[in-house]
Sequence to fold (272 residues):
Amino acid sequence: MRLWPMSDLHLESTRGWDLPAGDARPDFDVMVLAGDLVPRMERGVKWLLERVPDRPVIYVAGNHEAYGTDIDRTLEKAQALAAGTNVHVLEKETVTIGDVTFAGCTMWTDFSINGDPYRGMAIAGERMNDFKKIRTASYQQRFLPHHALTRYRRSIDFLETELRKKRTGPFVIVTHHAPIPEMTSEPGGTGNDPTLDPAFRSDLRRLMAPAPDDGRGALLPADLWAFGHTHESFDQVIGSTRLVSNAKGYGPWPGQRTWDNPDFNEKLVIEI
Ligand SMILES: [Fe+2]
Ligand SMILES: [Fe+2]
Fold:
């Protein structure tokens, strides 16, 4: 199966770029969109339905999908709009296409990769727009780091349960947040501020190696884990899992032709 993975298209900060169409579009079977397409996820679904009407799309929300809205309400609207179409909005859900199972969730982080999750949460809470621009509890509360941590724990439970189910075909995880503590040395979406890294990445390498039955079945790692959020390009096998990030990031800005991640490849297709 040929996958067309990308993330962080950030349509809200994009002028003069659009998804390759017609002959410029690569041959693919399933598009994989690992979040940060646009604030308000229902707008992202509409954008995808207009541009990719003829192939399955796996769409997972990034943090930006919830900006200016309620994190659960925008997901509900997106799922209502996507219901019965070729766009699969996944939040702790799976879908099987052909013999390939996709498991998707935004994921968030445990804020702990710098060794002190309390400090990680405090710094992220102070500095990150995620904890200023997102509402939760039916718009009643501001979304805070502890909400993100709860979502992270539920997401990891979901992923691990799925990885421990018996299966025969390939398995693909799609998350927005990064499942490894560090990637390249290239400057990325963390704004080069290592104190914010705990809000971008967590260390899930234990899910990339086989593990014995713990009562939920033996853990068989995913074949592929597509992610975004850090605005970097990444393609490496860790343990038994291939990790791929193909993020555009912000831009192009008016009058420019460049964007955050110069290595973004809008025609990247990978085989699984
Ligand atoms: Fe992003
Ligand atoms: Fe993001």
